[in-house]
Design brief:
With 375 residues, this protein is α/β, with parallel strands linked by helices. The protein is 43% helix and 17% strand. The strands form two sheets. A seven-stranded parallel beta sheet has the order 3-2-1-4-5-6-7, sandwiched between helices. It has a six-stranded mixed beta sheet with strand order 10-9-8-11-12-13, sandwiched between helices. Helix 3 packs across helix 4 and helix 7 runs parallel beside helix 8. The longest helix is centred in the middle third of the chain and has 20 residues. Pfam families: Glyco_transf_4, Glycos_transf_1. InterPro entries: Glyco_trans_1 (IPR001296), Glyco_trans_4-like_N (IPR028098), Glycosyltransferase_grp1 (IPR050194). This is Glycosyltransferase involved in cell wall biosynthesis. GO terms for molecular function: hexosyltransferase activity.
Length: 375
Amino acid sequence: MTHSQIRILMMLECLNIGGTETHTLSLTKQLIQCGIDVTIYSFSGGNIHEDFTSLGCPVYIGSLKAANRLEEVHKIILKHRINIIHTHDKSAELADHAASKLHLPLIYTVHGTYYDIFSKLHHKNTAFVSVSSPIKNWLDAKGIPSTLIHNGIDMKKYHCNRDQHSLKFQLGIPVDTPLIVYAARLGNRKKFKLCDAFIKTCPAIREKFLSNMHVAIVGGSPNNKRRFNLIKDEVNKINKQNGENFIHVLGERKDMERIYRGSDCVVGTGRIALEAMACETKVIAVGSAGYVGFITPNNFHEACLLHFGDHAGKAVFSKEVFCKDIAEVFLSDSSSDITNIKKNRELVENKFSIERVTNDLLQVYKQHMNPDILR
């Protein structure tokens, strides 16, 4: 079986900025570079729609009427001679129907424990992929075997270069100002509450040991504007109480690599933590599933098992623990800092590079493809 014989339909819920979508974008790019035909089908568009179309692959946006989507997918499969479907999260049920109808193998990547639709999936030739150890354990408990393949990071895009002060210039603050970036998707209720708790902790950090610290909140809530506006209201309130606009709300950004490079520390979870470490930036990992802390080469593998707080955590976020880790980030020895951040990037590349992830997925594809459908 050659790569040119594989024709994939990649199915998604939407094309907004998020961990699943960004991973799928990097994966699609790498698959195309390997000589594989990829077609994208998404229930809705979003702000990285153009990023997908720029890859040169067909991109289809589904009908607003869910009842029409199966027929749409059927026609796309026949038009592009699709011989394998790869689905992600909420698109799985539709993918299951389409794969069953046309007797195609189905690969289902499970990105979180928040979608439990397995009772609605009936296609026998389905292979499950889990993106973290907690998700694999969760699937195991349901009697569903899966292959653990992490989400991939494009190491060529996320790297350290010399534009590290551009974000501080943009914010109008001196280059020696300590700058913390908090990055997350804010539509999720737990992530919204976590961001709110983080914001309310910032004045205490300034009061204790970083009096000139600034903070940038990066992320949006495309499906829940109310939550995003509540974050902005809280930031305005805190800035007013402190007599200085030291917390900046930047909203969603597509240039995250520049955001990471321009900060002194990134607070985030999952993919955000990995991308920031690839850019050789210090990371404090915290997510909706729990707090992990300041990531070093010594605790990197443990943090991986927790998906950096996105799927499991060591503790609950608290002002005291977070302030302690912030102190370690900014008051640690500079020579060991350089060694650690370079080692972190090396660890990310060894375990999460998009090239490695793509090769692992290709093995799964080939294991489940019938030679008869390659013609």
